[in-house]
Amino acid sequence: MGGERTVPETSGLLSQDEVDSLLQMLADGEDLSADESMLQALESGVEVVRRYDFHQPDRFNKEHLRTLRMIHENIARRLGLQLSTKLRISVDVVLAYIETGPYASFVSQLSSAPSAMHLISMKPLPGRFLLQYDNRLADMLVDRLLGGAGMPSKNSDRELTDLEMDLLTSVTQDVMDAIQDSWQGTIELTCKLEEMMTNPYFVQVALPSDTCAWISFEMKVNGQGAALNFCIPASVLKPITPKLSPQAWIAGSGQQTDEEDWTTVRRNVRRHLDNLELELTAVLRGGEIMLSDLMALQVGDVIPLQRHISEEVVLTIQDQDKMCGHLGMHRGKVAVEITKIFTEEEE
Predict the structure, then answer these.
(1) How many other CB atoms are found less than 10 A from the CB of residue 143?
(2) What is the maximum alpha-carbon separation in the chain?
(3) How buried is 314 (Cβ within 10 angstroms: 0-12 exposed, 13-18 middle, 19+ buried)?
C-alpha cells in the first residue's frame, strides 16, 4: 500500500558501510591487543569468525612449544657432551627450530635420497617417533667412528650399508640417553630402538594428516655442519600434554648445575672406557748375554734366562707395570695366575 514502508530482510552479507566500519576499526586499533580488538568487534554486533583447518589441526599451543624448546635445548647440550666424549672430537649440537604441521608435510621435506631413519619408542608413552640423520651427518659420524677425521663423503646421495647403519645405533643410544635425562623432570621414559629404515616413504609413525612436532638440530663435527631431525606425533605426547608447561618442567627437573653436568660427563666417560681394549703383556725378564754369543746365535739354539720357571713374571698394560703372576696353562692356553697388584706408589 502507498502509506506502508517495506523493511528489507537482513541478509548474511555485510553492507558497504559495515565493511568500511571494520576497516576503520583495524586502522585505528593497531596498538590494541587481539583480545581488545575482538571485544570491540563483538560489541559492534559483527559476527567474529575464526578460520580453522580440519586437515591441519593445531594441537600444540604456544606454551607446549616453549616447553618442547626448553627440553630439546637441554637434549642438545647433553648430546654435545656425550658425543664429544664418545668421538674424542669437538661436537657442537644446537637446536635449530621447532615447527608443527601434518606428518605428510614433514615427509615431503625430507630428501628423496635414502637416509638413516630410526624408529624409537618412549615407554610408557604410546607410539613411536622418528629420528632422521641427514646423509651428510651420517657420513661424518661413521667416518669418525671408524677412526677417520669425521669428514663427509663425496657421494652424499648413496645408501648407507648395513654395517654403517649398525655403527649409527651407538650414536642413537647416546641420543636416547639424552632424551631420557632431559624428559626426567616431566616423565620417566625408557627409550628403545625399534626399527631402522632408509626410505622415507616407507616410514609410518603417524597418518598423513596427523599433527606432528618437527624438531631439527644442527650438529657440527670437526667444523662440518649437518642436520639431525626428530618427528614426534602429537598422539605420542597426548597423555602428558597437561604437563607440557615451562613451570612444570622447571619444577620437576630444577636448574641443571655444573656438578650434575660433570656427573653426566663422568658417567659417559666411564661407560665408554669400560669397553676400551688394552694390550696386556707378560714379561719374563732374563739375564745378560755377551755380544759375541749374540752374534753367534742360530736357529735352534737355547738361551738360558738365569731365572727359575717358578719365578714370577711381570704383567704390563700399555707398557706400564701393573701386576705380578705365575705362568701356567688354562684350558690349553698359556695363562698367568695373579699374585700381586701394584699400587700407584709401586708403579
Answers:
(1) 19
(2) 146
(3) middle
Q: Specify the pTM.
A: 0.58
Q: Which stretches of 8-115 are assigned E, i.e. beta strand?
A: 91-102
190 beta partners: 123
In the 8-state DSSP scheme, what is residue 178? H
With vertex at residue 229, the alpha carbon angle to CA 225 and CA 234, rounded to the nearest 5 degrees, is 160
Fill in the DSSP letter of residue 101: E
Q: Is 315 left (phi over 0), alpha (psi -120 to 50) or beta?
A: beta
CA 233 – CA 129 distance, rounded (Å): 7
Q: How far apart are CA 203 and CA 195, in angstroms?
A: 10
Q: Which amino acid is at 157?
A: D
**Parallel, antiparallel or unpaired: strands 224-233 and 116-123:** unpaired
Report pLDDT digits (tens) over 72-123. 999 999 999 888 888 888 889 999 999 988 888 888 877 666 788 999 999 9
What cell numbers appear for 328 in the block? 701356567
